[in-house]
Amino acid sequence: MSSKICAVIDYGMGNLHSASKALQYVSHDTQIMVTADPDLIAKADHVVLPGVGAMRDCMAEIKRLGVDQVVAEVAKSKPLLGICVGMQAMLTHSEENSGVDCLDIFDGQVKFFGHPLMETEGSQAGEKLKVPHMGWNRVTQSPHPLWQGIENDSRFYFVHSFYVEAQRAEQIKGRGHYGKDFVAAIGEDNIFAVQFHPEKSHTAGLQLLKNFLEWDGQA
Fold this sequence. Notes:
Order of helices and strands: EHEHEHHEHEEEEEEEEEEH
Strand content: 25-35%
Radius of gyration: 16 Å
Low-confidence stretches: none
Largest sheet: 8 strands, mixed
Helix content: 10-25%
Distance between the termini: 29 Å
Mean pLDDT: 92
Number of strands: 14
Strand order of the largest sheet: 2-1-3-4-14-13-12-9
Number of helices: 6
């Protein structure tokens, strides 16, 4: 019998199959449970908040199912991992769908990649990036236990049209570049979140998931 439980939150908007399969692959003593039951999520040792799709729909389901309340409780003490839109949902607000209030776990905004770039962003002024940003991209790390065994500037797989702007630089744990620098990972205390899909990122992604399952939530 597994000694620990990792709950992958099912609110109907996540890449649940691939994420749970990848977690099962790297797990040695952790039972991976896909669930929307707030009681089971609250009792789990580790919790994953995945996400794909439009932020308005994601937040509507998160609130309808009471996931926002249980995530707020989990965020106080247990290792919590956000993936892709699950990361974006942890910010204060997203400009997607004409503006959506999010979970406000991290101070910051979710912005659209398709806005014209400014010259200060390292590209020609007025240039527009193609969206979505899709494919492999290097991630430059800032120190964190979840990077253990992963070389700096390793490539991870991204699919996103929106990106995070964090208010507090010390919370940024990884950066990528697509026309401009963007936040690829954010974290504080027992919470870590990534814009990329670790379950689709081969060796480096699997190592990050393994690190998460073994993480005690101490930064």
